[in-house]
Each structure stands twice: as C-alpha cells, then as structure tokens.
C-alpha cells in the first residue's frame, strides 16, 4: 500500500516538480494551492505526510500547520516546510508550530525524497 503525501504550495510549478519526484518514488500525491485548500482536502483522507510552502495567500504555511495541529485526526501528520525562507526566526516559528523539517528552495528532488521517507518511517 503506497503512502499519501499532500503538497501545499501556491506555485503550480513547484507542486508539479515535487509531485513528479514523489510519484517517481512511489507515493500517492494530493495537491492543495494554499493553507485553506490544504485543510479542506486533508479532512477525511489518510495523509501520511504534508509538504507545505510558508508564504502563500489566504493562509500561510505556519498558520496552516497551527490549524492542522489543532485537529485530532491530523495533529500527528508530520510536516515538511518547503520555502525560500532560510531565516532562523522563521524556522523557529515553523518548528514551534509543529513542522518537523525545513527544506529551502531551490531544492534537489533527492533531498526532498530522503526527508519524506525518513519522516514517513518514523
């Protein structure tokens, strides 16, 4: 049974790149265009991991993670933040919200897959 990963990013091209890498590694992929869309799509689904951008319209990644962690069914889903933000303060904010890993764009697909498989195993 393959694992499901949700990608939450307002950039269609980033979603596509991540999706191709994940599908190539055997994962099922659900795409969402912002935090609100992500929250709507995650409910009632079996999602094993979420990869989220930080800077998005409507609901940014950190707010999305905070909301996710309030919901009993989704609070234990590991989240990887995928972002252009490399500032330590943002990283700490993300970790405080509940993000488990931080990958800075531009990223290598192999690096992303390694982080995903490590978090899904744990």
UniProtKB/TrEMBL annotation:
Name by which UniProt lists this protein: Response regulator
Organism: Methylotuvimicrobium buryatense
Taxonomy, superkingdom: Bacteria
InterPro entries: Bact_response_regulator, CheY-like_superfamily, Sig_transdc_resp-reg_receiver
Chain ranges passing through the membrane: none
GO terms, biological process: phosphorelay signal transduction system
All copies of domain Response regulatory, residue ranges: 4-120
UniProt keyword list: Phosphoprotein
Residues recorded as bearing 4-aspartylphosphate in the entry: 53
